[in-house]
Amino acid sequence: MLSKVQFRLQFLVLLWGFTGVFGKLVTMSALPMVWYRLLIAAIAVFVFMKFQKQQFKVSKKELFTLMGIGGIVGLHWFTFYLSIKLSNVSVALSTLSMGALFSAILEPIFFRRKINLLEIILAIVVSICVIVIFNATPEYKMGIIIGVLCSFLSALFAVLNSKLAKSIKPTKVTFYEMIGGLFTLSIIILLFQNDAISEIINISWSNLGWLVLLGVIFTAYAQIESVDLLKHVSAFTLMLNVNLEPIYGIILASIIFGDAEHMNIVFYIATAVMLSSIIINGLLKAKFAKPAQLKN
Fold first, then answer.
1. Total-model pTM
2. What angle in degrees, to the nearest 10, is found between the helix axes of 89-96 and 265-295?
3. Which of these, 44, 70, 170, 251, could form a disulfide with 220 (CB 3.0-4.6 Å)?
4. How many Å from the N-terminal Cα to the C-terminal Cα in the chain?
5. What does the pLDDT look like over 165-204, one tens digit per residue?
């Protein structure tokens, strides 16, 4: 039977898995959709911090750093939903798993450590699986390419976030990153996609309802809950469970959208192999890390 903490953890991953479904439920284009998600999430976190009487003050350096990372977060969400619009939820979620590959490349660069052999093997397996998915679903090739870019941005902001000073409260990080993402996408809209302004102004009530749900529950609440769960579980346990997000998302999308999300058997086999390799890699790294920690 699941403990209370385990239930909360699985519910959190289920929430994250559901975010892809909103890419189909919301009928707006990707850019104004993400703009609203960032705005609503920022407002929700602001209200939460005010209610908790938390301080908003950060140094100028921290502000610019958080705003910059927030810009990457905004672009990550934009490419995620653009990938869904160009393909479907299942394809976008499967390519998102490539974040593990990009993390294996970026972490040695940012932290100046040696490349791990297990990560090289993981990179090869994941790359082969994505190539198989690409060849098995050529009609979604543009969605897959955008999805790969999305996974790179996901890995990049995760690595950059891990380098932030531990003294910054997670709610502050979330708030200023949402503001940074909102600022970045606003500039993109003003300079390159003026059509998005009319979508933002003329939003339908149904779209607004879905976006409020996405911004408050599936973004702001999910972030705060993930931070609170780290008081009870290790970061490794949390990240290992996050790898279940594509599985939850693909199942939910299949239930909600039916035939539109059904893929061929090759897609599901390649996705299963990719996810399994990521989970096994995480377990093996944890196993080999324990003797090293004992030795030190």
1. 0.82
2. 30
3. 44
4. 36
5. 566 788 888 899 999 999 999 999 999 888 899 999 999 9
Q: Which residue has the tokens 């750093």?
A: 65
Q: Give Rg (Cα) of the chain.
A: 19
Token pair of 21, please? 């479904």
pLDDT tens string 112-130: 777 677 767 777 777 777 7
What one-character-per-residue DSSP string does 6-73 give?
HHHHHHHHHHHHHGGGHHHH--S-HHHHHHHHHHHHHHHHHHHHHHTT------HHHHHHHHHHHHHH
Find all residues with CB under 8 Å of 42, minimum gap 6, and list them. 175, 178, 179, 182
| Contact yes or no for 223/40 (Cβ under 8 A) | no
Residues 218 and 19: beta-carbon distance below 8 Å: yes
Coil, strand or helix: which one is 155?
Answer: helix
- C-alpha distances out from residue 39 to 23, 112, 173, 222, Å: 17, 36, 15, 16
Half-sphere exposure of 81 (CA within 13 A, CB side): 26
pLDDT tens by residue, 267-283: 778 777 777 776 676 66
CA 274 remoteness from chain centre: 17
Q: What is the DSSP letter of 166?
A: T
Q: What is the maximal distance between C-alpha atoms in the chain?
A: 62
